[in-house]
DNA sequence: AGCACGCCGACT
DNA sequence: GTCGGCGTGCTC
């Protein structure tokens, strides 16, 4: 049936308008039994050679003069047909080039590497006299052989035109090399080359002086299997020469084996067995394994309070998955991919787990990936991109902390791991479990519509109570003369906690400054009258602007609510809090964790390790300390300013605030000591703060969904955010206004087009940024938007104009 | 993205 | 008259 494989549709590794579709190539006979859908191939494209992925094999061409596939680059195709399909779907839904989507699914080392080399032409044409610099170049290439083009260009007296001239004269050849960045680690292994009896005879025949050779041979008499050369030499204290002479005699043989780097080599994990489940956990477990056993695609929201033992449910469900010969993916936010978490999975599944985290080198990541591709492991645990783990028979996908925004990739391809998980789940008839204490509002909404089954874990394991939560009204503090960052209650609690020898976590949810404007007397935050979104302070012209609808007004002299003049541009940095602690509590030991102290690799783990070891009394940090940490001695959690996130110009602000407060509160009192939480805020009555403090999750989601519905935000519509950017302000204004007009015209009556308005960050990297929002429900609108964008791109005469598209809901 | 093809200014 | 500037368009 090779005729069926005679034509390959290839997505080439070229990102440009017009290359966002496959190109057909002829498959030479010799490649027909190795080429598959998902194979990485080398092809000629235009005037050069590039890498590409086979996305379809057929017997029919859509084009007359096909070029051949030059080469299939891997023995095992990096992508499965299912992943190819997934990639094309992603390109479609994420508005990116297919190659961008396909490349995102494989380890970075497989991305194409292109280099050009210069060498002497094999049929070097003699003849005309050469100029001295030509002579020198040719002489050097004769000496050094083939050299990279960039290297040669750097040689004295060599220019592009000189090389071009010599190529024309058939004296030099410039060739393109397409490869990847793969390095494979190889080790040498030794094994007997003859039978046991022959070995025995050879041993007897050895001269008595050949002590080392004797030892080596007797080793293989006992254990005839291959051993790594280095291990053999080390254990017998032998040298290379003895092995070499045995190889020479034909008694032993050496072989090169490719070795997979094991990032956990030499580390042992205590093997654990599944503990009995609580009745609630048992119910969740059954909800997962029911459809799993039936081989039916199913989606479950595992809504469990912090400390309710979700991980144990995952572990046992994975176990069940493996027993059925299927595989599992576990996604966790990068930040909670801590050694403790890894140890838990390694402890249960040992060598059947591949761990993919950002700390791995390119090569290690590739090796973990290959273990998955080859079926050597059956469980993959990792951050967002682990959703592409190339399993062939997925049974279960778990997304832990499913509400986390890190599951959405900010760069192209802008995919959401949750949506990818659903798609893969359908393809494999697998069960998808979303676990969290604070589901995304969309997820709750979907569960309400029956798109997911919601399973609740309402109790903490071993009956530990949720911590006591106090909300402190910071307006009151100010009124009573406390101008410190710390309320009296938090000061007191902190002092008591540390004097008992326990630890505290202080949480400040934003680094540096934010730009919302707050009245310190009454807590009023200035909001847009049309959008219920905080106004943003613009220093340049001292105005307040709404980043959603464009409304602008001057900064008022006095608070519109209470007439106080204590109006303030809000913002407190972690450094300032640290200074304040030093002032109020001399001698208290603080570990500060923010972007500044953790940008070094491994710094995160190191700081947490030191805190866990009791080297500090207080852990002070931003977002990054909100989840995952579980230290037995932490009994106090303080939230310095719960408002900072609440007033970001984002329709998810209330949701994020609620999630964050609930998550940080969950950090206190997870073990035998009881916990306490103090939340400081200027908006104690805001529902996201009040309901988080009272752990009233149900009311929060009810209220938030109502608010979204009233203001028409996702999940009650879908939302496009188009970001126009350009180094010139005038140009981006014009382009975005024009685009907005065109969109309004095209989508009239079908969608709401808002803007353009300045982006949250109006200028970034010397580019001015404007946004246009499109609210819609009809999927046809998405197609229309895509068409308009394509049209705009095609006739954009300005190459500096960039349009990026984001989609919510 | 690259590179050729193609149509207008300053040089052997 | 030619070398080369970079606008336009295509790549199976």
UniProtKB/TrEMBL annotation:
Cofactor binding, note field: Binds 2 zinc ions per subunit.
Any GO BP: DNA recombination
Alphabetical list of Gene3D superfamilies matching this protein: P-loop containing nucleotide triphosphate hydrolases, PriA, 3(prime) DNA-binding domain
One GO cellular component term: primosome complex
SUPFAM superfamilies (alphabetical): P-loop containing nucleoside triphosphate hydrolases
GO molecular function, one term: ATP hydrolysis activity
Domain Helicase C-terminal: 554-720
Complex formation: Component of the replication restart primosome.
Protein name, per record: Replication restart protein PriA
Originating species: Planifilum fimeticola
């Amino acid at each position: 049936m090779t005729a069926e494989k005679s034509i390959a549709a290839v997505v080439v590794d070229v990102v440009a308008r017009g290359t966002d579709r496959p190109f057909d190539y002829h498959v030479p006979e010799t490649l027909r039994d190795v080429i598959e859908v998902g194979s990485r191939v080398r092809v000629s494209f235009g005037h050069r050679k590039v890498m590409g992925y086979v996305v379809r094999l057929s017997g029919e061409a859509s084009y007359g003069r096909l070029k051949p596939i030059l080469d299939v680059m891997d023995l095992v195709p990096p992508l499965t047909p299912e992943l190819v399909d997934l990639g094309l779907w992603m390109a479609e839904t994420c508005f990116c080039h297919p190659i961008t989507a396909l490349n995102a699914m494989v380890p970075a080392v497989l991305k194409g590497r292109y280099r050009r080399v210069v060498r002497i032409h094999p049929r070097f044409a003699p003849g005309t006299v050469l100029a001295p610099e030509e002579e020198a170049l040719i002489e050097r290439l004769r000496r050094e052989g083939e050299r990279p083009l960039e290297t040669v260009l750097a040689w004295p007296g060599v220019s592009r035109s000189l090389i071009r001239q010599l190529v024309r004269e058939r004296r030099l050849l410039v060739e393109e090399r397409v490869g990847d960045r793969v390095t494979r680690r190889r080790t040498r292994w030794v094994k007997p080359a003859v039978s046991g009896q022959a070995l025995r005879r050879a041993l007897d025949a050895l001269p008595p002086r050949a002590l080392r050779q004797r030892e080596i041979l007797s080793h293989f008499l006992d254990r005839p299997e291959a051993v790594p050369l280095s291990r053999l030499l080390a254990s017998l204290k032998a040298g290379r020469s003895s092995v070499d002479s045995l190889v020479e005699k034909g008694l032993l043989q050496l072989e090169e084996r490719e070795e997979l780097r094991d990032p956990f080599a030499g580390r042992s994990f205590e093997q654990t067995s599944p503990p009995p489940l609580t009745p609630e956990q048992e119910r969740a477990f059954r909800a997962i394994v029911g459809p799993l056993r039936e081989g039916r695609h199913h989606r479950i929201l595992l809504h469990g309070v912090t400390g309710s033992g979700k991980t144990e449910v995952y572990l046992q469900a994975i176990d069940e998955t493996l027993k059925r010969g299927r595989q599992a993916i576990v996604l966790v936010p990068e930040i909670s991919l801590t050694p403790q978490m890894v140890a838990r999975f390694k402890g249960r599944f040992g060598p059947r787990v591949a761990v993919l985290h950002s700390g791995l080198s390119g090569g290690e990541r590739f090796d973990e990936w290959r273990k998955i591709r080859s079926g050597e492991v059956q469980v993959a645990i990792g951050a967002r991109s682990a959703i592409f783990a190339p399993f062939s028979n997925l049974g279960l996908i778990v997304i832990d902390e499913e509400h986390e925004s890190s599951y959405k990739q900010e760069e192209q391809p802008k995919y959401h791991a949750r949506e990818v998980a659903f798609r893969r789940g359908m393809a494999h008839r697998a069960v998808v479990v979303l676990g969290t204490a604070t589901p995304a509002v969309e997820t709750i909404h979907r569960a309400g519509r029956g798109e997911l089954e919601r399973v609740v874990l309402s109790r903490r394991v071993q009956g530990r109570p949720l911590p006591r939560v106090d909300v402190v009204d910071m307006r009151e503090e100010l009124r009573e003369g406390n101008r410190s960052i710390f309320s009296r209650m938090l000061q007191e609690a902190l002092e008591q906690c540390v004097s008992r020898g326990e630890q505290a976590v202080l949480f400040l949810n934003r680094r540096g400054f934010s730009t919302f404007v707050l009245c310190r007397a009454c807590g009023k935050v200035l909001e847009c009258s049309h959008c219920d979104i905080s106004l943003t302070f613009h220093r340049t012209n001292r105005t307040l602007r709404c980043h959603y609808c464009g409304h602008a007004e001057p900064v008022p002299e006095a608070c519109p609510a209470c007439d106080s003049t204590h109006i303030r541009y809000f913002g407190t940095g972690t450094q300032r809090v640290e200074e304040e602690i030093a002032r109020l509590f001399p001698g208290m030991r603080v570990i500060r964790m923010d972007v500044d102290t953790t940008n070094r690799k491994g710094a995160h783990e190191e700081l947490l390790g030191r805190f866990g070891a009791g080297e500090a009394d207080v852990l002070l940090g931003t977002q990054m300390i909100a989840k995952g940490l579980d230290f037995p001695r932490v009994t106090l959690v303080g939230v310095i300013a719960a408002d900072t996130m609440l007033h970001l110009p984002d329709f998810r602000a209330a949701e994020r605030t609620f999630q964050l407060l609930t998550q940080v509160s969950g950090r206190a009192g997870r073990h035998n000591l009881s916990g306490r939480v103090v939340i400081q805020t200027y908006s104690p009555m805001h529902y996201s703060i009040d309901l988080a403090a009272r752990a009233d999750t149900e009311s929060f989601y009810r209220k938030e969904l109502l608010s979204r519905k009233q203001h028409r935000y996702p999940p009650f519509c879908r939302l496009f955010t188009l970001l126009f950017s350009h180094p010139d302000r005038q140009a981006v204004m014009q382009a975005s206004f024009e685009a907005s007009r065109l969109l309004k015209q095209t989508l009239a009556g079908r969608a709401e087009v808002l803007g353009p308005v300045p982006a949250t960050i109006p200028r970034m990297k010397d580019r001015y940024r404007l946004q246009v929002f499109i609210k819609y429900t009809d999927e046809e609108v998405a197609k229309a938007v895509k068409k308009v964008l394509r049209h705009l791109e095609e006739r954009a005469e300005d190459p500096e104009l960039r349009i990026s598209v984001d989609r919510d809901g």
